[in-house]
Write a structure and sequence with these properties.
This protein is an alpha/beta fold. The protein is built from eight helices and five strands.
Length: 162
């Protein structure tokens, strides 16, 4: 396990799980949200995002936290391990609510509310994003360890916290 992806719905606990993998493995951790978003809530250009992602992908060891479907296939081609957090929508909504008002290392600002558009993204994730994710995981399963968690308890157990 040298090049790890942590993917799944917003609110599923990707960043917390990725930090646990970092603690367990010593691998450097990169948050795609920190690459894409600027502190003033604007974003970098696609070209800048892609350039920074390519720099990370060229490294020998890493954990990359985040979905960003446009670049998922490129990351899958380079990784050796994938953790998909496929948790129920209700759990993800609760996870997103719990982080409101908290400073986090994986986002360059503090969320003040669970905004309606973000809430809708979480609700729609299983039908709009997961099918493509599973399709890509099937396509790139050869030579990769793919672990799917369906509960926080499964995540904690893997990390040795359970």
């Amino acid at each position: 396990m040298e090049r790890v992806l942590v993917i799944g719905s917003p609110g599923a606990g990707k960043s917390s799980f990725a930090r646990g993998v970092r603690e367990k493995s010593g691998l450097p951790l990169y948050y795609l949200d920190m690459i894409w978003h600027l502190p003033d809530r604007t974003t970098v250009t696609r070209e800048e995002f892609d350039r920074r992602l390519e720099e990370i992908l060229r490294e020998d060891r890493w954990i990359i936290d985040g979905n960003y479907g446009r670049t998922l296939e490129r990351r899958l081609m380079r990784c050796d391990t994938v953790f998909l957090l496929d948790l129920p929508v209700e759990v993800c909504l609760e996870g997103a609510k719990e982080r409101v008002g908290k400073q986090r290392e994986d986002l360059p600002w503090k969320e003040e509310e669970l905004d309606p558009e973000f809430r809708r993204w979480i609700i729609d994730f299983p039908k709009e994003q997961l099918p493509r994710i599973y399709e890509l995981l099937e396509q790139y399963k050869e030579g990769r360890q793919i672990v799917v968690f369906r509960s926080r308890e499964e995540e904690d157990e893997w990390l040795g916290r359970g």
